[in-house]
């Protein structure tokens, strides 16, 4: 599918009006770098061009606008609305790191690719509200630009907000193009991470064309039958087939792939699950070398889902099994739970389409 972005439309407009080429640069800079929010505020453009831009695209530069924001201890969540009235959430996370004795602050932006989601994973607040729409490439990019324009740049971008990025692949990948383009945000692809529930054609596309981007597979259960109950997408893309696509990704790109695992009390936090996860992660030398398991304690959040947080003792036992089998793993810090901005908690102000449980 060919995606036409705001910049494509601006190029067409300039060509049609026979404007000199440097005008494009001026407009591009205003979109990407300047702190202004309206085309009519671009001071170095002739009035007639500003009027034409506003007529063609509307006067607002960004395709999303802020409705509400919540600022927690380490998470800043913004509720944004698209021009056609759909809501999405974007979260900026702050990490305090210490590297070689030097303290560093790292800001990561967790962005959405869809409003709502059709895939209905049972632990996910976004899944509970159902599908609203696929975001356009500009709406995906503009979540980043919103924060830049408000003096909150990001060191890294994670495609793990509302929606499944590879269920909206054309817009997501076009937004990635704009983020890494030299005349776009000029970000290194290594600073971008995409998390998927295992949409195989999308993973294959990433392996082929976007190998430098960090890939995470949201596994959450190593047994197909149990996972299918939790994540219906398993029926279309069973675990072993997704892992075969990941094996190819590891072979071609030779860098780390993450397995995300949300620990849900009495659902997937047993030693049986931990052992099966280690079997999966040790099945080939490449997996053992390059897979990294990210454990995440489930956050009950706004109670759109019926699950509970695992006990510390279960988490410790789970980790101990991974350690004993030399599986690279990390227990992620609990971020954003105070403002419902943690993993799987993004639901904007939508209500669930049916009562959970
Ligand atoms: S976990 Fe991801 S794919 Fe599943 S319902 Fe939530 S947003 Fe959709």
Provide keyphrases for this structure.
357 residues, alpha/beta, DNA polymerase, domain 1, TIM Barrel, 2 domains, ten-stranded mixed beta sheet, two-stranded antiparallel sheet, 12 helices, 12 strands, globular, binds iron/sulfur cluster
> Which class best fits the helix and strand makeup?
alpha/beta
Main beta-sheet strand count, sense and barrel state: 10 strands, mixed
The CATH class of the largest domain is identified as Alpha Beta
Mean of pLDDT: 93
Radius of gyration: 21 Å
Just name the CATH architecture of the largest domain.
Answer: Alpha-Beta Barrel
| Total number of beta strands | 12
Q: List SSEs in N-to-C order.
A: HHHEEEEEHEHEHEHEHHEHHEHE
Helix content: 25-40%
Low-confidence regions? none
The N- and C-terminal alpha carbons lie at a distance of: 38 Å
Bound molecules: iron/sulfur cluster
The largest beta-sheet arranges its strands as 1-2-3-4-7-8-9-10-11-12
What is the total domain count?
A: 2
Strand content: 15-25%
Query: Please, what is the CATH homologous superfamily of the largest domain?
Result: Aldolase class I
Description:
By secondary structure, the protein is of the alpha/beta class. The chain folds into two domains: 6-57, Orthogonal Bundle (DNA polymerase, domain 1); 64-339, Alpha-Beta Barrel (TIM Barrel). It is 35% helix and 22% strand. It is built from twelve helices and twelve strands. The chain has helices spanning 6-16, 22-32, 47-57, 125-129, 137-149, 169-180, 200-209, 224-230, 239-253, 271-281, 285-290, 312-324, and strands at residues 64-71, 75-82, 87-99, 102-111, 114-116, 131-134, 156-159, 192-196, 214-218, 257-263, 291-297, 329-331. The strands form two sheets. It has a ten-stranded mixed β-sheet. A hairpin with a 2-residue loop joins strand 3 and strand 4. Helix 1 (6-16) runs antiparallel to helix 2, helix 1 (6-16) packs across helix 3 (47-57) and helix 7 (200-209) runs parallel beside helix 9. The two termini are 38 Å apart. The mean pLDDT is 93. Bound molecules: iron/sulfur cluster. Residues 117, 119-121, 124, 126-127, 163-164, 197, 344 line the site of iron/sulfur cluster (SF4).
